[in-house]
Design goal:
By secondary structure, the protein is α+β, with helices and mostly antiparallel strands. 39% of the residues lie in helices and 14% in strands. The two termini are 29 Å apart.
């Protein structure tokens, strides 16, 4: 869908800045299908112009031309404080292709780059590419990554690195920050245009309701409540849940210092710049709720078109209170499913919480433990379950397994049927930081084979893939504390 709002108060014309001697680093044939791109036998575009286009070196490929690339303005809250005007500092929207927006990240300065150079580096581009596609394979709403194009052109970050351009696609990159920007300027006209655009294209069910803008807020809030519940269920930490990084479509966007949990720590912080732990794993639901409060505040003028200020505030406050209810329902269902529980029994929540606390106390690997739980059978004895050896307090975990086995006996499914269901929910393979780092280090030596291998493995995260068994293992001790920053 094209971003149809225009005007220098909304966006600026932004031609990409070319990079020297571009080359393919990574390409997603799966994402290319969404754009109906014609690919050759090795899974790259037939037309060599696509390399130059996705590098930002030209605006055409074959008969296709993107004549009006733009960067958009938005504002937002960063680490809990109002940051004022922000915008696409290193993202350039080329335009619409097959009802999807195609964006280049790292293709040079934009009107909103502030003190930045508008470039991305190879390291961060590989991480975004791999994680976008991995999240899609996990069934989690996300922007997609089409490619990474590299160059030997130098970029200065903490150290001297090489440039790369990551192309990404989504139905829309509209975010909470767009609403906050126009609200901060008291521009009700632009706010209404933005909301109408979203409803017409993505939330048509809101149009014919009694209160369309309230319905739109509820719909956006619901999608993001469900999204963060999905993150929690696979141990995904976003790292920078600023309001300007929150999608109005409930997508995972803006991959930076993200990380999947290895050994489970409820308060794990994946971003070493997050000194106070604002975006720690256990705080992600609370922060997403906070961001929805920012959206509610920004959308208040829209409700005031039909209601008094007091009534508008009351309606949005009530709608905002639905977020934790939706989140709790989705979280409970997700973790019941991870344990193979189909019936909804109230005591299940305590059972889940006890397991997570035990995992936290013993720093048990999150993904491995849940994957292996599918091997538990209704006639198992706690002392025979090998996973008990992962826990420090054997007596306590034995009691948990006894209670879990007893609970499984309430279910009608056979052990085999339950295992099959659990193995479709609990991934065996995730993008662990040490795996991404290994791929990055090889790529920095012009060897992109590990990126391709990870693409293949992570495209089927629920399959056994015996030949890649080592990729399912937790990181070695010296790789457990890889830190990532906002430049990642």
């Amino acid at each position: 869908m094209p971003f149809t709002l225009r005007g220098d108060d909304v966006c600026q014309p932004t031609p990409p800045t070319p990079i020297s001697n571009p080359y393919w680093v990574a390409f997603s044939a799966s994402a290319a299908k969404l754009l109906q791109l014609e690919l050759g036998p090795i899974g790259l575009p037939n037309d060599p112009d696509w390399l130059e286009l996705l590098a930002g070196n030209q605006l055409n490929a074959g008969e296709l031309t993107f004549s009006s690339p733009i960067s958009t303005v938005y504002s937002g809250h960063q680490f809990g404080s109002w940051a004022g005007q922000l915008g696409d500092g290193r993202a350039i929207l080329l335009g619409d292709m097959n009802q999807l927006e195609l964006q280049l990240k790292g293709a040079g300065k934009t009107h909103y780059s502030r003190m930045g150079d508008g470039r991305a580096v190879l390291r961060s581009s590989i991480r975004e590419f791999l994680c976008s596609e991995a999240m899609h394979a996990l069934g989690i709403p996300t922007s997609r990554a089409l490619s990474v194009v590299g160059s030997k052109q130098r970029v200065i970050r903490e150290t001297l690195e090489t440039a790369a351009v990551c192309s990404r696609i989504a139905p829309s990159f509209i975010r909470v920050g767009h609403f906050e920007h126009f609200a901060s300027l008291q521009n009700a006209v632009r706010l209404k245009e933005l909301a109408d655009l979203l409803m017409n294209e993505f939330y048509p069910e809101c149009l014919n309701t009694k209160d369309p803008y309230l319905s739109l807020f509820k719909a956006i809030s619901t999608r993001n409540a469900k999204l963060v519940a999905q993150w929690q269920s696979v141990g995904f930490c976003h790292g920078v849940l600023n309001s300007d990084n929150i999608s109005a479509l409930g997508l995972t966007i803006d991959y930076g210092p993200f990380g999947f949990l290895d050994h489970f720590e409820i308060d794990h912080i994946c971003n070493h710049s997050d000194h106070g732990g604002r975006y720690a794993y256990h705080r992600q639901p609370q922060i997403m709720h906070w961001n929805m409060a920012c959206l509610a505040s920004a959308m208040l003028p829209l409700l005031e078109l039909e209601h008094s200020p007091e009534e508008s505030q009351a309606l949005l406050r009530s709608a905002l209170e639905e977020f934790p209810v939706t989140y709790a329902k989705e979280w409970q269902q997700a973790f019941r499913s991870k344990l193979g529980l189909q019936l909804e029994i109230e005591s299940d929540i305590k059972l889940i919480e006890r397991l997570l606390q035990a995992m936290h106390d013993s720093k048990v690997d999150f993904t491995t433990l849940f994957r292996q739980l599918s091997n538990t059978q209704k006639d198992s004895k706690p002392t025979d379950i090998t996973q008990r050896d992962e826990f420090l307090d054997r007596e306590s975990i034995d009691q948990w397994f006894a209670d879990y086995i007893h609970r499984l006996q309430s279910e009608v499914f056979s052990d085999e049927a339950r295992k099959a269901m659990m193995d479709k929910i609990n991934p065996k393979y995730i993008l662990r930081n040490h795996l991404a780092q290994a791929a990055i280090e090889k790529a920095q030596q012009d060897d992109f084979s590990e990126i391709e291998r990870l693409q293949l493995i992570l495209s089927k995260p629920f399959n056994e893939q015996e030949v890649f068994e080592n990729y399912a293992k937790p990181p070695p001790f010296d790789m457990q504390r890889i830190e990532v920053s906002c430049s990642s």
